[in-house]
Amino acid sequence: MTLIDLPVTGRAPEAARMASPPVRDPEATAGLPPPHAVAGRLHVGAARLNGRLARDATGSWCFTADGDHLPEAVAGRLADPATAVAMVPMVDRRVLRRLRLGPLRMAVASVDAGRGLVRLTAALCGPVVERLPRPEEPLPAMLDGRSLNRRRLPACITAIGPYEAVAEVTGPAALLVPGTVMTLTVARPWATPFRLRGRIIAVEAGAGDAGARIVLRMADPASVDRAAVLATCTAPGFGIHALWTYGLKPRGLMRHLRVVPVAGLADMATVYRLRRDANQFYGRRPDAHDPEAWADPLDACSILFLGLLGDKPIATARLVVNGGDRSRSELHALVPVPEEFWEGGFVEVSRLVVHPDFRGNRIRLDMFREVERLALGLGVRYLLFDAIPKLAPLYEAVGGRRLPLTKKHQDSDEIEQVMYVDMRAILARVNRFSAVWLAGFGGTLGRHLEIAGREPTDVILGPARRSPAAAVIRGMGRLLARAGG
């Protein structure tokens, strides 16, 4: 039978008498049955011993064999430092078997064969803790598990990676038994709660036994994915490329990417830092360390965006609105913009950068979706932008076209291709670009139609607004918006 919160029996009166005076010799009380224990099975090489595991007054984890006696052969093997010793808390034995987790390896501190007592240690592994990514602020969480007897303990995650997490737990350290399976529930404002199931592999009690620090190792692939997403979305310096080094591609990571308009000086400072970090990664203006040096006069007449992956800003872009004023066009100052674009109305997409830790993950297209939504609201027909040669095919796949114009990158000697997107050509006829465009931007179009109505798109479409193709595009956009929630 599984034993949890075993009552003090046998020597209980003696324990009660010894509890009132101050304890001068911790070793004198090491063998007393503790007030909280879990049934456990000790693996000593090939031998198996049933008993109970609890934390004693010295802070060590003590295994007391049934009958308070250790067989002589087992005691002899425990005296050999090379003997492998491991523990299985019986309260979670079925879960451990289902998750295909073996016994937890522990170290032997001392053995008292006469009392059937084995003192074990499950100390924190310093190198493991130090290499884990750390969120900017501790992440509030709740800890629960079968060995807690339906208790839920408050916790804060101070470090987290795909396979381990370190948490400061508020509650008695005696409840946090090494080897038991716990569920750590983490709530973030940008996502549904993350439920991380893992096994306690190390415990370090706090002052006065009022709390403890634990290391939790993820117990199943779903928890590994969730922990990887949480680390990617909260820990500075841990990005998609770090995940690739673990061989992971967590599902649903990009669901936590949202694009928001810049509001306030703090957001502007974040924009400048992203511009600096992304450009200096490619060797542009290596001496411009001050983020303010990456400001631009046209920021004042632009709509700026931040791409946030969870808590972390990872991308930025801006939409330069010229309103027909040629002095407000970044491209016109460098190359002659054809008159047809001035007549149809256009906005410029520029300063689109992605943090180096997240490059190569099609985040640019997510930023482009927000730009597309605003362009629909502004009623302009064209989007103009520049692209380095290796990115031009990415934009061509969503309907971008090249102009016979090139320019020099504003922060380097690289030559960029000037490109444009003709909204009327995409929205008014069904062709090979329509399917690609709808897959990438159809939901944005549908949501914009539901919010703003048909008038903004009709301004762009002009005479083609009544065509069957335009009706099909609008209808598909609405369907995709509803399907995407």
TrEMBL record:
The highest taxon in the source lineage is: Bacteria
Positions of the N-acetyltransferase domain: 257-424
Q: Which parts of this chain are annotated as the region Disordered?
A: 1-29
InterPro entries for the chain: Acyl_CoA_acyltransferase, GNAT_dom
Protein name, as recorded? Type IV pilus assembly PilZ
Species assigned in the record: Tistrella mobilis (strain KA081020-065)
Which GO molecular function entries does the Swiss-Prot or TrEMBL record give?
A: acyltransferase activity, transferring groups other than amino-acyl groups
Gene3D superfamilies cross-referenced by the UniProt entry: 3.40.630.30
